[in-house]
Design goal:
The complex is a heterodimer of chains A (413) and B (77). Chain A contains 19 helices and ten strands. Chain A has 413 residues and is an alpha+beta fold. In chain A, the strands form three sheets. Chain A has a five-stranded mixed beta sheet with strand order 1-2-8-5-3. Chain A has a three-stranded antiparallel beta sheet with strand order 4-10-9. In chain A, a hairpin with a 4-residue loop joins strand 1 and strand 2. The longest helix of chain A has 24 residues. Chain B has two helices and four strands. Chain B has 77 residues and is α+β, with helices and mostly antiparallel strands. Chain B starts with 7 loop residues before the first strand and ends in a 9-residue tail after the last strand. Chain B is 18% helix and 21% strand. Chain B has one domain: 2-Layer Sandwich (Alpha-Beta Plaits). Classes of the chains: A alpha+beta (413), B alpha+beta (77). Chains A and B meet through helix 6 of A and loops of B.
């Protein structure tokens, strides 16, 4: 092993340190200004925090593999209960079959099956359904005078929409939400986390298997039928169809929850921007959602593995090295965004990287945008002022997700 | 049999293009990636109009516009 560049002496290398979880912007922002591509000795991975470096890496997919679960080295971190370790292999096999884990040419073959379902034009047809679901939730909540945004709004909304996309009956939604909640243990820190996660993974397979069987015989306009069609064309195995059904449930759930919670928190903490949105909810919702995505993104970071030796920002990355790219830091790179620490819902252009970039650009980006736009618009149309009902907001100790543990707010009815 | 393209003007908005590459898959004769791996129009007549419109529709950030050169009107994608 060649010598690695020394760590900047003033910054911790512990990415799970409470201050890093609470405020990733100060930590990764400082790192970006010192070394936009930095070797973290403790976790044995490269941290990419500069905007240009991050975009360059994501657009050179032939140099940086997405098969990080399959090829990920080492035991789970933070540690898990030792008796649960067999579950780790089971969960890894499940996740390794996801579309997001594939490289070209396989990735293009698989993405081409599902890509058409998620185009901006196709997703725009879902807007009336999303708007109605938001209205139903908010009109129900409003007389109460208080809510936990996470459990009362941000969690139920995406599950409702995903259930509709899967074409499953209304009465299944509670079960689906329980499965989605179990999947949230991915990338969490609890030592017992593999048990609820494995239960959810098995639950998804059990739940989806008869649905897939049915849609193979009688395809409909739903997303499972799209995957089933991929199986009929020999692009997907049955296992991949089941896994990617689970991926839809997971990828569309936690990320949307975080967009809603983090975005609303930013709006509450910036009353001038909330007033700006309230003055023209329909007109401002689109740009406001982009700024929420930039300012406090649902996904803080994700990973690649170097497929070749490659030099970037004066650092020599070796084949097999792990990289973690920090969208939360790139989104505040002053070389790209003026006054990057300020929350400005009229910011334009706003080329944030919260959905990634390149061939793996988030398949659900348009849907997430529509959900964010309709939620922020719906809130601004109904509430004159929302107030935080907690002294401090705590976050899940995850490197990947920027997830509040709860978001209590109140208002005067 | 695909019909020859009418004269169209194709634009890629580089503030929006994220280099997803789907346009290169659907209309490889028209689009290519530049050094930043963003899409560029290299030959507006390189593919049939149907394929160009499919490429535009499949852009995940709606960065591609196709304009009828004679009328100046945008194609609905």
């Amino acid at each position: 092993m060649r010598p690695r560049p020394a760590a900047p002496p003033t910054l911790t290398e512990d990415l799970f340190a409470p201050e890093v979880v609470a405020d990733p912007y100060s930590y990764f922002g400082a790192l970006r200004e010192i070394e936009p591509v930095h070797w973290n000795e403790r976790f044995a991975l490269w941290l990419v925090t500069g905007y240009d470096e991050l975009v360059w890496i994501l657009r050179h997919h032939e140099l940086f593999s997405s098969a990080v679960i399959r090829n990920g080295a080492g035991p789970p971190y933070p540690p898990v209960d030792p008796q649960d370790l067999p579950l780790f292999d089971e969960i890894r096999d499940f996740r390794a079959d996801q579309l997001v884990e594939q490289d070209r040419p396989e990735h293009l073959r698989q993405r081409s099956v599902v890509h058409g379902y998620f185009t901006p034009k196709a997703m725009e047809k879902w807007r009336p359904f999303v708007r109605a679901a938001v209205a139903e939730l908010l009109d129900d909540i409003r007389p109460r005078g208080a809510m936990d945004v996470l459990t009362d709004l941000a969690a139920p909304l995406p599950v409702r929409i995903i259930a509709e996309m899967m074409g499953v009956p209304y009465e299944d939604r509670d079960h689906l939400r329980a499965l989605a909640d179990g999947i949230l243990y991915i990338n969490r820190g609890e030592p017992y986390r593999l048990r609820p996660l494995a239960a959810a993974v098995r639950g998804i397979v059990d739940y989806a298997a008869p649905l897939v069987e049915e849609r193979i015989d009688r395809p409909g306009p739903d997303f499972i039928s799209v995957l089933a069609e991929g199986e009929l064309r020999d692009v997907f195995t049955r296992h991949q169809v089941l896994v990617n059904t689970g991926l839809l449930l997971f990828a569309g759930h936690e990320t949307t929850m975080n967009l809603i919670c983090n975005g609303l928190l930013a709006l509450i903490r910036h009353p001038d921007q909330w007033e700006r949105l309230r003055a023209d909810p329909a007109g401002m919702a689109r740009l406001a959602t982009e700024e929420c995505l930039r300012y406090d993104p649902p996904v803080k970071s994700t990973q690649r593995i170097a497929a070749e030796d490659v030099e970037i920002a004066g650092r020599r990355i070796e084949k097999g090295d792990r990289l973690r790219w920090i969208m939360a830091a790139a989104n505040r790179d002053p070389r790209v965004f003026s006054d990057p620490g300020s929350f400005d819902i009229g910011r334009q252009p706003n080329p944030h990287v919260s959905f990634g970039s390149g061939i793996h650009y988030c398949l659900g980006a348009t849907l997430a945008r529509i959900e964010g736009q309709e939620v922020f618009r719906g809130l601004a149309e109904r509430f004159s002022r929302l107030e935080l009902a907690a002294d401090r907001i705590e976050y899940q100790p995850s490197l990947q997700f920027r997830s509040v543990k709860s978001l209590p707010v109140r208002w005067w009815v | 049999m695909k019909r020859p393209p009418p004269p169209v003007h194709i634009e890629v908005d580089h503030d929006r293009c994220v280099g997803n590459g789907m346009c290169l898959t659907f209309a490889p004769g028209v689009f290519a990636h530049n050094a930043r791996r963003q899409s560029e129009v290299v030959d507006p007549e390189g593919d049939a109009l149907e394929d160009i419109l499919v490429a535009a529709e499949n852009c995940p950030t709606a960065a591609i516009s196709v304009i009828d050169a004679a009328t100046g009107e945008s194609y609905e994608v």
